[in-house]
Specification:
The complex is a heterodimer of chains A (323) and B (220).
Chain A: H1 2-8, H2 29-53, H3 61-64, H4 74-92, E1 97-99, E2 109-114, H5 123-131, E3 144-149, E4 171-176, H6 185-189, E5 195-197, E6 203-205, H7 215-219, E7 226-227, E8 242-244, E9 256-257, H8 263-266, H9 273-277, E10 283-287, H10 294-301, E11 303-305, E12 317-321
Parallel strand pairs in A: 1-8, 2-12
Antiparallel strand pairs in A: 2-10, 3-4, 5-6, 7-9, 11-12
Chain B: H1 2-28, H2 35-46, E1 54-56, E2 64-70, E3 76-80, H3 81-85, H4 116-119, E4 128-129, E5 135-136, H5 141-146, H6 150-157, E6 164-166, E7 175-177, H7 180-183, H8 210-215
Classes of the chains: A alpha+beta (323), B alpha+beta (220).
Chain lengths: 323, 220
């Protein structure tokens, strides 16, 4: 079509048609399509890598390209832990050590709370807050202490905002935190395996892999998961410098987190911070695989119950009464 | 499942009986200085030979009474119990501070129907005494408490009563445990009421927030 117009052009003096632009004869439909395709391809590639150009200020390229925790080798871990420590130094002005604590073979952690002793004073809540580098303004903590009416075990009726001397005569007090379930619904729903159960029973989160979809928060029947709505703010002198990758290192905004049984302490053989803070001695921590442990004695000798046992979550967390 | 439960219960009761017998034997044995020693020895020798110790806090030797006056250097003056009591005959009828006409005024006493000399040693006021009259030093006060508070002592010996610090894994570090009187005032042993000092701003399970929470579909 174009070619014939060009041929006719010079002979048609009275024509109203202006001369059409000269197009090289090689350009046909096929090459035009190729060019368009290439342009589109380039544009698509550009869009695909655009997050690299628009990374948030606090996300390094290294962090953006980081692999899942389980795929990291020792060199990767060393580099990442060093990076996390230097970021904390930069952003919070605190010198910290970020380690990677692994489970001890043969250990399966369990936790028991004596509801005859707990008086609802909330020292465990505060200890968790400071130990685990939670945001100061929101007072975030992995533990809630529920004030409950005597005679009910329905945690949904509990109240966390009581503000009076404790204990009240007609109430009992039930601390609730992650139950480290053997059948954890929060792990099942995670679309990207950013959370999983480790060999010692602790359910952990890779904060650098989590996309913050909050499915796990919705799935947990104990309301034990927390979401970081914003970057935590902590004064430099209040940052706990003993940190671990899967536990209390300062978490970025937009990711999920939860109680990890203070694995940076317990995997070194120490007690969790909430236990040491408890003034009533209501908390007992230990190794479920050790038949001589205090915990196993309690399971054998006390009246023990599981929270929401009917859901089949199989918690490693137990509540008991003295008599 | 059912069979397993029954066997667990049987095991538990058998264990409880065995422990009670063992505990009872340890209790009445005059060679046993304190409960803590008994617990520690049993643990270290029988199970984990190279384990770290469980150290139980022990009160100071014997208490001193603040006289409420300052000496020449402005330091408070205190006296040993025997300073006064050595020259005063014990009055077995006294039940509380209210019965006294001088000294120890205002001491809050709420410990059952005990008299002063149920625990304090009338022959040596710098020590305590058991129900059978045996003298007990103040640092060994747990032996005294354990005479009446059997279930608490049993639970304490099995680690389910009383706060602790340190290591759950004694092969990696030591542990310290509270003494009875660290938490319980012997004159008024009920654990005191407390005021919660720390509250997270919680979006769940609180009456004023439940409407907002259910709006977000987070709360049934």
């Amino acid at each position: 079509m174009i070619d014939s117009h060009q041929d006719d052009g010079p002979n048609d003096q009275g024509s109203e048609f202006m001369p059409l632009p000269v197009v090289t004869p090689e350009v046909n439909r096929r090459t035009a399509m190729k060019a368009t395709g290439a342009a589109l391809g380039l544009a698509a590639f550009g869009t695909a890598i655009s997050p690299l150009a628009t990374l948030p200020d606090k996300v390094s390229l290294d962090e953006f390209l980081q692999k899942h925790y389980k795929e990291l080798d020792d060199d990767d871990k060393e580099r990442i832990l060093e990076r996390l420590a230097s970021e904390t130094r930069e952003n919070y002005g605190a010198d910290v050590t970020v380690s990677d604590h692994r489970p001890t073979p043969g250990v399966k952690f369990g936790y028991a709370i004596n509801l005859s002793k707990c008086n609802g004073n909330g020292k465990c809540v505060e200890a968790c807050h400071t130990e685990n580098n939670h945001d100061r303004a929101t007072g975030q903590s992995y533990i809630r202490v529920l004030e409950m009416d005597k005679g009910s075990m329905d945690m949904e009726t509990g109240n966390t905002t009581y503000d009076h001397t404790v204990p009240q005569d007609d109430k009992f007090y039930m601390p609730v935190q992650c139950q480290q379930c053997d059948n954890p619904p929060c792990v099942t729903v995670c679309p990207i395996e950013a959370t999983w159960k480790e060999d010692d029973g602790i359910v952990v989160v890779d904060y650098d892999w989590c996309i913050g979809c909050r499915y796990c928060e919705a799935a947990c029947p104990y309301h034990a998961r927390r979401f970081n709505w914003q970057e935590p703010e902590i004064p430099a002198d209040e940052v706990n410098p003993e940190q671990s990758y899967l536990s209390n290192r300062i978490r970025p905004a937009g990711v999920m987190e939860k109680c990890h049984f203070c694995l940076h302490r317990t995997r070194e053989g120490r007690m969790p911070a909430c236990l040491e803070a408890c003034p009533t001695g209501a908390r007992v921590f230990g190794n479920l695989n050790d038949p001589d442990s205090e915990l196993v004695w309690i399971l054998k000798n006390k009246r023990v119950f599981l929270l929401k046992e009917e859901l089949g979550t199989e918690p490693s967390f137990f509540y008991f009464f003295d008599e | 499942m059912h069979g397993r439960r029954i066997s667990l219960i049987q095991m538990a009761s058998l264990l409880a009986v065995m422990l009670m017998v063992a505990g009872g034997a340890a209790w009445v044995s005059p060679d046993t200085p304190t409960t803590s020693h008994t617990a520690d020895k049993r643990r270290t020798s029988a199970e984990t030979p190279q384990s770290f110790p469980v150290v139980v806090n022990r009160p100071q030797s014997s208490p001193r009474v603040d006289l409420g006056v300052l000496d020449g250097d402005g330091q408070p003056v205190s006296a040993a119990c025997a300073t006064c009591h050595a020259t005063r005959p014990p009055n077995l009828a006294n039940r509380s501070a209210a019965d006294l006409d001088e000294f120890h005024q205002g001491l809050a006493f709420s410990h059952g129907k005990l008299t002063c000399l149920a625990c304090h040693n009338g022959e040596d006021y710098d020590a305590l005494k058991l129900a059978d009259g045996t003298s007990v030093e103040f640092p060994d006060v747990m032996t005294l408490c354990g005479q009446c508070h059997g279930p608490q002592t049993r639970d304490y010996l099995h680690g389910s009563h009383g706060g602790m610090n340190g290591f759950w894994d004694l092969s990696r570090g030591p542990r310290t445990r509270n003494n009875c009187v660290d938490c319980h005032d012997p004159h008024a042993p009920q654990f005191p009421k407390m005021m919660p000092t720390f509250k997270p701003r919680d979006r769940f399970l609180s009456p004023q927030n439940s409407a907002a929470a259910s709006h977000e579909g987070l709360h049934q």
